[in-house]
Amino acid sequence: MAQIVILGGGESGVGAALLAQAQGHQVFLSDQGELKAAYQSELSQHQIPFESGQHTLERILQADEIIISPGIPEKSAIVQAIKQQGISLVSEIEYAARYTNAKIIAITGSNGKTTTTLLTYHLLKEAGYNVGLAGNIGQSFAKQVLEKSFDWYVLEISSFQLDRCFHFAPDIAVLVNITPDHLDRYEYKFENYIHSKFRIFQNAQASTNCIYWGDDEVIQQYQSLIPAKTQKQEIRFAPGKGSATITEKEIIFEAGKIQRASAPIQGPHNAMNMSAAILAATAAGVTWADVTKHLPTFQNAPHRLEPCGEWNGVHFINDSKATNVDAVYYALNSFNKPIILIIGGVDKGNEYAVLDTLVKDKVKGMICLGTDNTKLEKHFGQTLERFAQTDQLETAISQAMEWANEGDIIMLSPACASFDLFKNYEDRGDQFKATVKKLTHGK
């Protein structure tokens, strides 16, 4: 019997606590924040001791192994103290994977991993597979390993989760792209973040399917980090070079073609996401007939280029999940109509120059929504004819509506984290949709 401590009492932490207890270990959960009442109740029901609102270091350091929430940064005092003691420190993904014989599809990337994960899961589930959805999305992986009996899992994996994965070895590993993100967590060194993402391949074997965007300059530069013996499948925009080749009108696979115009998700970035999901699904054994049958019925996640209203011929788009600059780049590239862009929040070390050409060509007005818009104002304030800033969501939307003409798009695509004004990106997106409904109702 080992002493297992869980740091962080969210969905993944509570699930890990339940799984660890079921394995016969002594478990203690510690959350420095306020543990939700529902989680407190679940832990009490299973007689798992916990603390909320503090970390008792002395008790935590008695652990044989610690399972850490991805939200706790490596540079925090608690993590430094654990490292000094040499205690095993792992993610929920690493821990739960020890206790399942199910095959695993793991998907990571700076942008598009949620869409790719959901589409992969959709294709497997609709094809009749006994499949679970977990990781950075849905229910706790550990809890599903404990309570369910799936043959397959599709896991969305963040860099924070990968940082604490050491023996995790998915059967199908997918890397959709790498662009600068979370640099505040990686000492503002892009290389550190890149190495974190490539951990998805670190235990790949000869039988492992490694799927990645072959045109991505960063992936090309670090491709040697993918073990040579693996089953590599590249996605390319260059004709005839990849396992999936994206052209202007179609995506070409060995088994057939997908017409981009009739696909359920649009834009070049979504052609990439679709390619990765289809390659992952077919690597898992889904037939081409099932792919073509079930692809049209896919619906993307909320807060990702989500249509959420129309008023006087103006369309509203909720893209609150766009928490980095590249996600905004993809969003702007998905439309050929004038855009009024609502952007801003907690900057994560963003470099906005990558947006300059698209902003010049497509953005007729920009509204910065945040408590500190200095960096955005400095970069865009002098170049745009219509530029405003506010820390009130309703004011931002009202201003956008004043500028908008029939055929325009008002889009929330922040490029930043949400924690200055909102609980999380979901809360930001939900409030955006509710405010749009309020301001357009009856007008």
From TrEMBL:
It is found in: Cytoplasm. Residues 107-281 form the Mur ligase central domain. It catalyses: UDP-N-acetyl-alpha-D-muramoyl-L-alanine + D-glutamate + ATP = UDP-N-acetyl-alpha-D-muramoyl-L-alanyl-D-glutamate + ADP + phosphate + H(+). Keywords: ATP-binding, Cell cycle, Cell division, Cell shape, Cell wall biogenesis/degradation, Cytoplasm, Ligase, Nucleotide-binding, Peptidoglycan synthesis. The keyword Cell division applies. One of its GO terms (molecular function) is UDP-N-acetylmuramoylalanine-D-glutamate ligase activity. It is an enzyme of class 6 (ligase). Pathway: Cell wall biogenesis; peptidoglycan biosynthesis. PANTHER family: UDP-N-ACETYLMURAMOYLALANINE--D-GLUTAMATE LIGASE (PTHR43692). Belongs to the MurCDEF family. This is UDP-N-acetylmuramoylalanine--D-glutamate ligase. It comes from Aquirufa regiilacus. The gene is murD.
